[in-house]
Amino acid sequence: MKILYAASEAYPFIKTGGLADVSYALPKALRKLGIDIRIILPKYGNISSNFKNKMKNMNSYNVPVGWRNQYCGLQYLEYEGIPFYFIDNEYYFKRTEAYGFYDDGERFSYFCRAVLESIEHMDNFIPDIIHCNDWHTAMIPLLLKEHFKSKQQFSDIRTIFTIHNLKYQGVFSKSILGELLDLSEEYFSEDSIKFHDGVSFMKAGINYSDIITTVSKSYAEEIKYDFYGEGLQGVIRENDYKLQGIVNGIDYELFNPKTDKIIKCKYDLYSIKDKAKNKIDLQKILNLPVNKNTPVIGIVSRLVKQKGLELIAFIIEELLSMDVQLVLLGTGEEDYEDLFKYYSTIYPSKLSSNIFFDNVLAEKIYAGADMFLMPSLFEPCGISQLISLRYGTVPIVRETGGLKDTVIPYNEYTDEGNGFSFKNYNAHEMLDVIRYAIEIYRNKNKWKNLMINGMKTDSSWENSAKRYSELYSSLK
Ligand code: GLC
């Protein structure tokens, strides 16, 4: 089986969020099952030159963008045995960031078309399925149907579209239909890709792919309703027959406290005591009072509304008046950045705000914190809670999307469960659960059981990769 996995980001080349982790780890797991899956990405300017220097030129040709033709270079690099293709066009992709430009609509119209045009240049790799991810690649199923229908070798290609986050939809002005996508007015209708007055990439993925998946079972349900549907709940419901939720995993080789080279002291289930050394290390690095009995709560997050930071903002003084230390790492909306910076000047011994992103510190938080807080407003899957579980750091989450599917609330009577959770998007409901978690933390035996339950939870890709493989087979 041949699969082309189209995405706008993938570890280790370019990463702004969880999509990058999945675009590396899922194909890696699928290749272990014997599937010839290859990834195709834009060749961004900010990919490290270490990688760029090793890329091999395969071919170059023109790609139609509306009435124009644009250059396209196809490059190739194998990383850890996984084949990656890159679409090279410096005008579109040689920039300092991956997204956030005025012409993103044009850049990804080009990318979607370029992915399809490139297939004939991939020596002998005509995929059975193109697996698209999020809005940046969501136009592919429609362009395939419309512009490649007369090409014999394309006629059997099927498509899967995975929604990692329904909030980001890629909606642009109506003019892109003809000018960039070469599509006629007939597609500007409610049952096609019209969204309000614009054209929606997301809708193209939903309406024209053969199968839709989302990254957890609960999220697949939630997006059928107004609260989570981002205005597309009706379209999702109409396409329910081809929608499935498959929960993400994490790469068990990349995230493993037993082999992790970054953390101060490696540990596993049998040396769980050593985790405390990582906590001391974390406190030292961040200039927090060193005390192994003070519960440390970690947050590693993009600082955006989705992540539920307003709940934390609402109770931050109450939280910091307790015997806890809060360690935050991440960047995002200025209001949140300022808020956390401000409170760390007022409570320097309680709050460490690290407003940047740094992989090393992230690992040290996953390993060193006692608890990990993730009170998301919505969460398609979430990856941080899975890493936390793997590192014996107990997640405290809101019961939504993938958080609900992966964190099982602790039951102090039976010792079952691997974390703590609360239901409503309510700051004091969250604070009550944090208080309860700290109460359990004070009982060393119970806490140890909870850590062990987390570390024993299977969040590897194995099971989910099998489900994707079955889905692929069902389309053949
Ligand atoms: C998005 C979602 C996150 C998910 C990730 C990978 O970033 O917000 O919940 O884990 O995609 O699927």
UniProtKB/TrEMBL annotation:
Catalysis performed (reactions): [(1->4)-alpha-D-glucosyl](n) + ADP-alpha-D-glucose = [(1->4)-alpha-D-glucosyl](n+1) + ADP + H(+)
Domain (Starch synthase catalytic) ranges: 2-238
Pfam families per record: Glyco_transf_5, Glycos_transf_1
EC number: 2.4.1.21
Pathway where this protein functions: Glycan biosynthesis; glycogen biosynthesis
Domain spans labelled Glycosyl transferase family: 289-448
Alphabetical list of SUPFAM superfamilies matching this protein: UDP-Glycosyltransferase/glycogen phosphorylase (SSF53756)
Stretches of the chain forming a coiled coil according to its record: none
UniProt binding sites for ADP-alpha-D-glucose: 15
Claim: Transferase is one of the keywords in the record: yes
Single Gene Ontology MF annotation: alpha-1,4-glucan glucosyltransferase (ADP-glucose donor) activity
Enzyme class of the recorded protein, top EC level: transferase
UniProtKB keywords: Glycogen biosynthesis, Glycosyltransferase, Transferase
Transmembrane regions listed in the UniProt entry: none
Family: Belongs to the glycosyltransferase 1 family. Bacterial/plant glycogen synthase subfamily.
Role: Synthesizes alpha-1,4-glucan chains using ADP-glucose.
Annotated protein name in UniProt: Glycogen synthase
